[in-house]
Design a protein that fits this description.
The protein is α+β, with helices and mostly antiparallel strands and 217 residues long. The protein has two domains: 28-121, TolA/TonB C-terminal domain, CATH 3.30.2420; 124-136 and 146-213. Helices cover 20% and strands 26% of the residues. It is built from four helices and twelve strands; from the N terminus they run αβαβββαβββββαβββ. The protein has helices at residues 2-14, 43-46, 83-95, 176-188; strands at residues 33-34, 50-52, 59-65, 72-78, 101-102, 109-110, 112-120, 150-157, 168-171, 196-197, 203-204, 206-213. Strands 1, 2, 3, 4 and 7 form a five-stranded mixed sheet that branches. Strands 9-8-12 form a three-stranded antiparallel sheet, with helices on one face. A hairpin with a 5-residue loop joins β10 and β11. The longest helix has 13 residues, at 2-14. The chain starts with a helix and ends with a strand.
Length: 217
């Protein structure tokens, strides 16, 4: 009898309802605040493949920022059109810390919705395919057996700037990880390449070689 009563009491305790709305977050406003990272959380060092931008091919992320400065409820507000860039932006924001909004007058920190726009770092963030051409690269070899920080990728696009075949490596860095990253970057530019155009003529398909240099700091 005692054992049965103990089990019944345990069931009663475990069935106490929990307030699932305790951490209530208001709806996202039409114009969230522009986010500012805090000291020591510069995207250039925390997310070396990305840069803060306000133009070009970019992913705009919105997130809830409590007074602690740690972002949550991170989501894409405006897609870049590249799943790789969108995912990298969300991952980057989750690793950063931001300055909380403050009240007017006394400057007390308050919770708020904020947003930030990021793009790929370097010229590869806005790849261009014009007339078929060879873009030379001057890779500096190191003492590790012919490895470098440069990769040259061959791309071919249609009249709309979309890739018509998978990018291929023309000049390898000697490191499989960098080569694979360069191919992913080139592929993410599909539909954002500038097709070749003739004077007074319509856009046309074409191929080019894209030189991608990685910062190995």
């Amino acid at each position: 009898m005692n054992n049965w009563f103990g089990a019944a009491l345990t069931c009663v305790v475990l069935s106490v309802p929990v307030d699932v709305h305790a951490d209530h977050v208001p709806p996202v406003p039409e114009n969230p605040l522009q986010a500012q990272t805090t000291l020591g959380f510069n995207p250039k060092t925390r997310c070396p493949n990305l840069r803060i931008t306000d133009a070009g091919t970019m992913a705009v992320v919105v997130f809830w920022l409590p007074s602690s400065g740690i972002p949550s409820h991170i989501s894409i507000k405006s897609s870049s059109g590249s799943n790789a860039l969108d995912s990298a932006t969300i991952s980057c924001v989750s690793r950063l810390r931001f300055a909380a909004a403050t009240t007017l007058g006394n400057g007390d920190p308050i919770d708020s919705w904020q947003q930030i726009a990021l793009s790929w770092a370097g010229r590869a963030s806005e790849p261009i395919a014009a007339a078929p051409a060879e873009i030379s690269t001057h890779a500096k070899q190191d003492a590790s057996g012919g490895q470098s920080n440069d990769v040259t990728v061959h791309v071919c696009v249609d009249e709309a700037g979309r890739l018509i075949q998978d990018p291929t490596i023309v000049h390898s860095s000697g490191m499989a990880s960098l080569d694979q990253a360069a191919v992913r970057i080139a592929a993410s530019g599909s539909a954002y390449y500038r097709p070749v155009t003739s004077p007074n003529g319509p856009p046309a398909s074409g191929c080019a070689q894209l030189a991608i240099k990685f910062d190995m700091k």
